[in-house]
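In this supplementary section we document a worked example of the pipeline. Step one takes a protein sequence of length 379 as its only input; no multiple sequence alignment statistics are reported here. Step two produces a three-dimensional model, which step three serialises into structure tokens for compact storage. The input and output of this example are shown verbatim.
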Amino acid sequence: MKLFEFEAKKIFAKQGIPIPKGKVTYAPDEAGEAAHEIGGAVAIKAQVLAAGRGKTGGIKFTDNIEEARTIAEKLIGSKIKGLKVGSLLVEEKLRVSKELFISVTVDRYARCYVILASTEGGVDIEEVAEKSPKKIIRYNLGVFKGFHSYEAIEIARKMGYKGRKMITLATIIHNLYSVTLDYDAELAEINPLVETEDGEFVAADARIIIDDNALYRHSELREKAMKRLRELTPREAEARRHGLAYVDLEGNIGVIGNGAGLVMATLDLVQLSGGKPANFLDLGGGASADIVKLALRTVLSKPEVDAVLINVLGGITRCDEVARGIISSLNELKEKRPMVVRIVGTREEEAKELLMNVGIKVTDELDEAVEKVVELIRR
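The serialised model returned by step three reads:
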């Protein structure tokens, strides 16, 4: 579950992490009033659950109250990265001396939390990793030993700070780790953490992603999660109710797979081959024929889908179950659309026979499957 910036900042403030003076607004007049209350220059920030708003016009600055209202009028109801803007965060514009990056996230390979820190804040961390990898400090945290103050101080020292600033920065880093633990977060990030001209540190932006499996421990967040469910597209909401991970995209090739990493890799290959994915749909592990049937029905309910690519790597997922789900779904459909299936693993021979008997193109090579489905679209 992703939190809006203003929600994340409320949590930061409770945990002792400094945030700018600001107010959430839902109408242009409210934005103007907020700018007046704050006084001076303000930042007006669209509240959407996506990173990189600044690059797409989702963050504006002004020192004029009337202009703040005009900006708000343009932003509210607009779309940023395909997401409708329903609220704005109006906050004081900080006098920036330096921008830092601090993040606590999960290292799935090492099976522990990792702290990432850099003096190159304000840009995508992937950009920093590519251009200046030595400027990223990486600190893996032992599962049982936790994270101690002296370790936070060491990270702040490596970032080039000493004295009072080093202690202050270390406290913020340690508090960010506490947020991660207290809220079962997969990610808690400040980018940028601004060092102001007065030598203070302030979280200019905030991101928190909560582990959905831990929402039962956070009743206030669970209620928000249910409300967010109602804000998804109808297909996304319906899929979520049935336990499917589904996201609408803008292309015309439906993509279904079992496992988030496998689906992501498939999307990338489709894109690299000149195709455009219409969605992301992860069946999860051990999907039954009924789940596969539901998944295919969900993808094909999107009018823009001209062809479907199914990529299954069967382990605990039985390939013959997947095949039966596909066939059952197709038998009920009035309108048929081209389909390519790449299927390997448990009971793959049975699955291939079932699918080929009904005329579905089957392969055990992903590259070949991607090329075939993109070719179908081009025809």
